[in-house]
Each structure stands twice: as structure tokens, then as C-alpha cells.
Amino acid sequence: MSKRTIVSMPGDGIGATVLPETIRVLDAAGFEAEYVHADIGWEFWRSEGNPLPQRTIDLLAEHKIGLFGAITSKPKSDADAELAPELRDKGLVYYSPIVAMRQLFNLDICARPCQTFQGNSLNFIRRGADGGVEEPKVDVVIFRQNTEGLYGGVEWTNPPDQVYDALMTHAKFEQNFADAPREELSVSTRIFTKAATERILRAAFEHAKKFGYKSVTVCEKPNVIRETSGMMLALGKEIAKEYPGISLWDTNIDAQMMWLTKNPEDYGVIVAGNMFGDIISDGFAGLVGGLGFACSANIGDEVAVFEPTHGSAPKYADYETSIVNPIAMVLSACMMLDHIGETEKARRIRRAIADVVTEGNVKTYDMMKMRGQPNVVEQGAASTAQMADAIIEKLK
Ligand code: NAI
Ligand code: MG
Fold first, then answer.
1. Inter-axis angle of helices 343-359 and 384-395, nearest 10
2. Cβ atoms within 10 A of the Cβ of 46, count?
């Protein structure tokens, strides 16, 4: 088989540590690929005024599959202040390169699995009816609509005339907001399209069917957000008819956040709009080890990018020995392998991670519930490289 080309985008901070360690694991699993480096992140905002340079977009368009570490973003005032002097006062505006990548390549399907590794000391536990401690096994995959909704970017402060006038045609707006001075109004829209909503729902049901999940839960708030959440639930009911073996459940986002700490083992595939999907996936990630374990895939028709949920964790970026957990990035790479049909290699790597976690001899600081500090390695925590080594050892 010809070698795959993977666009490697380490980005900022710990992204630049966990991605190379992940490539070592992929190599050890026998995945033959050529990695082409692509620039992304804060450094390129500062030096070029563009955190997602065109050359990176071109590489993604050409090779279709990206592995991405993390980026740093900072508030507007810092973004302006850190721009190279010759680029200042040119009207350049910082934007998130991840959001841009998702929108540019229509990576509208975001999948975030949250699965318990047996023996992980960070696993969620609860008190059972008999007073004993229970450790439910969580096996949930969240499908988050990745390009629309509250993160769609259609928003205004002091909305222009046409927008204001249009809002005033809505009885509720006139009744509740007409008295507010216009310059004191901020409006962020929540736009859902039928096409994208159907795509995320279908992706969720297809995943449930392929991997034998019993239920797909639409997690929104249709009783209050009647148009957008209502549309997702109504379409969910239609699409569910095509999948007779799979139950359609629906929950409200607020109640879901409570239930996931009571009976997380009852859920299988969950599907939601952009912001609620973001919230639930962090919630479930907290039950299975948190940011050190949270992986994700951003999938479009042509291009797909795989990344850990965590950010660049700048405070750990410059440690002489990196201490952060590479597992989230490695699990993201497993999602990439699944996506391109290398499922056996993905299975082997996940097995290796499970073995390391269950044995419990090699743990990064987060798995030991330590505060991240340079001396955690002296105190018995594994470094990033040692964790990757332990996974590689299990692959042999
Ligand atoms: P963060 O995810 O970078 O870090 C939060 C905390 O989580 C860290 O201080 C650390 O204690 C822990 N953590 C994160 N990754 C870990 C790992 N692999 N192993 C062990 N512990 C880990 O989020 P934060 O601090 O809110 O943001 C830092 C920067 O990252 C910001 O500039 C933010 O904009 C950016 N960010 C980027 C994301 C991305 O690239 N997808 C996502 C979230 C934040
Ligand atoms: Mg998030």
C-alpha cells in the first residue's frame, strides 16, 4: 500500500510536545506515513498577521488528513500588542485558526468519544444503593455540530439598522428589548440549517449502528429554544425511523449535565448542536480522566482533522522535561487511523494504552492527581516521553 501523507500541525505550547510523541507511537504501531509539517498558531499571527497561513490551507486541501496539536489564542488587546511592529495598524484582526479550519473545509461533524479505561484513578465513582462504591463504565460518543449554532460567528454589538429593524419585527424583541439603548445591545445568533443538522444526526445514527450502541440521545433544549433545538429533535425523530434497532432518546442540556453524574453508563451516542455538544463532551470527559484523555475528530466530506480537546497549556510548554499527558493526542490519532481504514492499528494502540493505564505503573502527573510542576517527575510521575515509551513497549 502506498504511504499516506499526513499534515502535521503541532501548533503552540504543548501541542508541539504531544504531537511528535504521538508520531512515535504511530511509527511503533507500524503505520507507514509521511508527515508534512504545517504552520499554525500564535507564532504566525505575531510574525505574519495570520494564524492559519494559506500554505497550511493548501497542504490540507492537497493531503486531506491533518493531525493537530493545539493553539494559543489571547484576548484582542494582547493580539494587537504582540503583532510584529510592521504589521500593526493594518487592520489585521485575530481569528481562531481552528474555527477557521472547521468552516473553511466544512468539518461539520465533530466526534468526541469518552470511554473509561479500567483502572484509571481519574475515573468517576459514586456511592451505590448499598452504600458501597461503584465505578460505572462510561462508553459515550458525542457528535457535536461543528460549524453552526452559537459558534457560527453571526453576532453584533450595537447592531446596524437593518438588523435592528429586522429584530423589531419580532414581537418578543419589541416587547422585551425595545427599551434598551441600541448601543448597549449585544446579539449572538444561533442558526441551524436543515442540511447540517441532518448530517450530524445521520453521522450519530450511523456510528451507533456500526458500533452497536443501543441509543442515540438528542441533547438540546427544545422546550425553550423552540426553533433550532426543535428542528434538531424533529429531524432526529424522522431519521430514527431509518434505524429500527436504535432507540431515540431526548434530554435537555441542563438535565443531561446532572444525569451524567448519576447514570453515565446508560448513554451511548449523544448528538447536539455546537455549544451544547462542546459542553456535554467536556462533562463526559471529566468522568473518564479529563483533558489528558479527551480526543476528537473534525470530519468533513473531503478533509478531516484530528486533535485533542485540550489547549496549548502554556504554563507547561517550556518545561525542560515535558510532563503533560500525551494520551489525548494519541487517542485522537487512533480516530484518524479508524477514519482512513487502519482500524487494526487503532485497536492495537488503544489496547496498549488500556494496558498501561490498567497496570498503573506509568502515570503522568494528572493521573496521579498532582499539581503540575517541574518536579513531578522526581516525585514519581511519568514524563510525556515516558508515557509514550510505555505505550510503545506494549505494542511490541
Ligand atoms: P488548556 O487545555 O490548554 O489547559 C488547561 C489545563 O488542563 C492545564 O493547565 C493543565 O492543567 C490541563 N491539561 C491540558 N492538557 C493536558 C494534558 N495533555 N495533560 C495533562 N494536563 C493537561 O486550556 P486553557 O489553559 O484554558 O488554555 C490555554 C491556551 O490554549 C489558551 O490560549 C486557549 O485559547 C488555548 N486553547 C486551545 C484549544 C485548541 O487548540 N483546541 C482548546 C482550548 C484552549
Ligand atoms: Mg471545549
1. 120
2. 16
Domains delineated in the chain = 1-110+293-396 (3.40.718.10), 124-152+191-287 (3.40.718.10), 155-188 (no CATH)
Helix intervals (H) in 187-326: 194-211, 228-240, 253-259, 274-285, 314-317
Give nearest CA residue, ligand 1 atom 32.
Answer: 72
CA pair distance 165, 178, nearest whole angstrom: 11
Question: Nearest CA to 339 among 285, 308, 309, 298?
Answer: 298
C-alpha cell at 156: 453584533
User: Average pLDDT, stretch 301-307?
Assistant: 97
CA distances from 43 to 24, 39, 40, 55, 74 (A): 25, 9, 8, 15, 12
pLDDT classification of 3: cutoffs 50, 70, 90: confident
Q: How far is CA 140 from the centre of its chain?
A: 14
How far does the centroid of ligand 2 lie from the alpha carbon of residue 309, in Å?
6
Expressed in angstroms and rounded, the spacing between residue 285 Cα and the centre of ligand 1 is 14
The pLDDT tens digits of the residues spanning 221-251 come to: 999 999 999 999 999 999 999 999 999 999 9
Q: Quick check: 330 and 28 in contact, CB under 8 A?
A: no
pLDDT tens string 345-387: 999 999 999 999 999 999 999 999 999 999 999 999 999 999 9
Ligand 1 site-directed mutation target among 40, 310, 330, most atoms within 8 Å of CB: 310
Which of the listed residues 19, 101, 291, 373 should we mutate to test ligand 1's pocket, taking the one with most ligand atoms within 8 A of CB?
291
Coil, strand or helix at 389 = helix
Q: Which helix (H) or strand (E) holds 62?
A: helix 54-63
In this structure, the residue with its CA closest to atom 26 of ligand 1 is 311
Give pLDDT, residue 76: 85
- Under the banding of pLDDT at 50, 70 and 90, the label for residue 153 is confident
